[in-house]
Amino acid sequence: MSIIVPAPHPELAVGLDSPLTVLDLDGTRIANELLDPHLTDIDESALTTLYVDMVRVRRLDTEAFALTRQGHLVLWPPLLGQEAAQVGPARALAPQDWVFGSYREHGFALLRGADMAEFARIWKAFAHGGWDPHEIRMAPSQIIIGAQTLHGTGYAMAAKMDGADEVALTTFGDGATSEGDVNEALVWASAFQAPVVFLCQNNQYAISEPVAVQSGVPLALRPTGFGIPSLRVDGNDVLAMHAAARIAFDRARSGGGPTFIEAVTYRRGPHTTTDDPKRYRDEAEMEAWIAKDPIDRVERALTRMGANMEAVRAEAKIRADQLAKEFRAAAEHAEPPTADAIFDHVYAQPTKRLERQRLEHRAFLASIEGDR
Length: 372
Ligand SMILES: Cc1ncc(C[n+]2csc(CCOP(=O)(O)OP(=O)(O)O)c2C)c(N)n1
Ligand SMILES: [Mg+2]
Known about the structure:
The chain is α/β, with parallel strands linked by helices. The chain has helices at residues 44-69, 83-90, 106-112, 116-123, 133-136, 147-162, 180-191, 211-214, 238-253, 285-290, 294-305, 309-333, 352-367; strands at residues 13-14, 98-100, 168-173, 196-202, 205-206, 209-210, 230-234, 259-264. It is built from 13 helices and eight strands. Helix 2 (83-90) packs parallel to helix 3. It is globular.
């Protein structure tokens, strides 16, 4: 009896031997014939914007982490180390595009324009969704691992049917690629040539599970088995990520179908603020990733370009501190929802049964008022 294993198609993947990089660790540019044509407009000013974005995202992340420790937020999934993997693609989105992400997409949320007060409410467990998805064209954070890839693919299929000029970016982790949902999304995206971009932020761990346990091949090889081309990219190189995203978005927009991007990066913090990574990983492996820090690398590149780094750093700090201050104030002063709010968003139009339940619930709360 022979076992038939669906063959991956390595010819559909780029960067399998070594992730695509255009910014060396010392800030020099490495020529890359695939990515370079998509970076011709990135001058000192554009690179400074990406730098400031990453500094702001990191500051938001650090502040939120501290706020959980101080009891103002209940949980936070840190993104320290993954700033470039989010800022590069986020800055390649067109305003009409949509983002369908997980719970770790603070960079996308910030750059899509999520209201920081709403954002703080989510992580204080005072709100389920937080921002208005239609306003910023970003779906609420998805906790069910990989489910957002189906939502993104479905959205993209509908956009194609409507003839709309919209691309859906769906972003998820390395562990998510082992989920049925992600594999089903790849099937549908491929079968319908949907204008969807799959961004896998391979931060090397699914909580305590290292990626090597999840896959014997680079994750970028997995989508090729579905006929989807993929780019394996240095996820700590904001320019490489920006260029790869532009390639994928252009492809989707021009009817070329889905593309998968594996951003090879590292989660330097714990999985969430309730996790202790010392229990499952050797902290020494962090050193190599600190050397690949996405922000330091851009600082070196800007310095080489002749930028006044002192001024750039000062400007970034002012903006990052302002953001942290706003976020802190929102977290500290957020008001809890009323118990009644649980009934508000069940249906677009309330049903009689729901209204009856609301009244019963109110009566129940009133009946135990004295005991609380
Ligand atoms: C369907 C489902 N299974 C399990 C979990 C529990 N869970 C939460 S985070 C996580 C790991 C996800 O790892 P990865 O996809 O690599 O994303 P990362 O957290 O590293 O960004 C798991 C298994 C869940 N939320 N949903
Ligand atoms: Mg992961």
